């Protein structure tokens, strides 16, 4: 495993102001969202909005450093504008060049971040440089799907074939991890509308944690970590989350779902403080 690692995920809403500008609509806010949804259905047959119209309301991440220390964090609209959320995220790359890990990050998260950064007139060469500034990034940058600086697990595990794409929720649950908790519907608009910031960040962080756990299993598959290393990383993750009150439910669900596969059945039997040496 190439450390440090940053596993990340974003949550978004439809940017009604930009949508109204793009389509030349002059409607009350309540009608505007319905109109944009109808237009999108006519364009694509889907409610899923164009990427540039996804306004970022939260970016969550799990940072794992060279000492195997973990830090789960979220930048959200509770305290920051969209531009400030992006600036905080970009500042990570100004200081370090982590291995970036995502689920569908190459087709959704990073393109949305790119469009929204341009919308706000932000600069992020540490993330988007492809060798024009740092010549080494010509051969290993965050945009190229076949490079290893950004590992989009959905893309890689599908062997870069869109017909094989799977949902993070399904794969995590299949492997003995929590997947989504609670209702199946997408609750981010409701969380923002009701200012339920803790629920929103916990939701986003849950996707980050599921991605991290799938990533560990993928590294084991590839032989990049040994079975004993995998066990220690799982123990370290559980130990860390025991000190994170907002992820109490994630741990409880994980303890239940881990019993569903032989490989994960012993994950919670003996939790010891981690002793990972690198």
From TrEMBL:
Residues 46-254 form the Predicted 3'-5' exonuclease PolB-like domain. One of its GO terms (molecular function) is nucleic acid binding. Pfam families: DNA_pol_B_exo2. Keywords: Exonuclease, Hydrolase, Nuclease. InterPro entries: 3'-5'_exonuclease_PolB-like, RNaseH-like_sf, RNaseH_sf. The keyword Hydrolase applies. CDD domains: DNA_polB_like1_exo. Gene3D superfamilies: Ribonuclease H-like superfamily/Ribonuclease H. This is 3'-5' exonuclease. It comes from Acinetobacter lanii. The lineage of its organism: Bacteria, Pseudomonadati, Pseudomonadota, Gammaproteobacteria, Moraxellales.
